[in-house]
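Quick start: read one record
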Amino acid sequence: MLVLLNPAPVPVDRSVAVRSTVAVVQPILRGVPLRRLLRDWVHLLRPAVVLLAAVGAFLLIRSAVIPKAFGQLGHYRPGALDLIRSHPISYAGQETCALCHDSEAATRAAGKHAHVACETCHGPLASHAQDPSIKPKLPEVANLCRRCHEQDAAKPKKFPQVVTTEHSGGMPCNSCHQPHNPKP
């Protein structure tokens, strides 16, 4: 059985290590002039110039393309906020829909689609909310339901999923299910 004891530290003479390194390196360099060691540096010059030119071009293009205000308020351009504000509002919001369509809102609130906003299925309807004479086009039910309920392994198992071609037999979903409160 080998027992290792913690021996007292032995002082290390660093000058010995330096002298031995010099003793090995000096004979190698003694017969070789410095010019001979660096004679092949010219082949490194061209890639270095190309690399510097590429970095310079990248920085120049980056400064021309990226707006000056980018990054001031996070990782986006503050001018984008004004651009977004300039677009007309296209979604009215669920509360606005419920003001006129209270029976549909009550049916939906009592069913499985309670947390699905109206405009998720019906599309943006701010223009209809401002002028009720503009009648929105009803969504194509077969494609609409398929977007969320087509069977997909990536969806949670508890989420209602069907293979629409086998499930419906080509009939639209609303021929059997009420869209605002679907029952299996």
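The mean pLDDT is 80.
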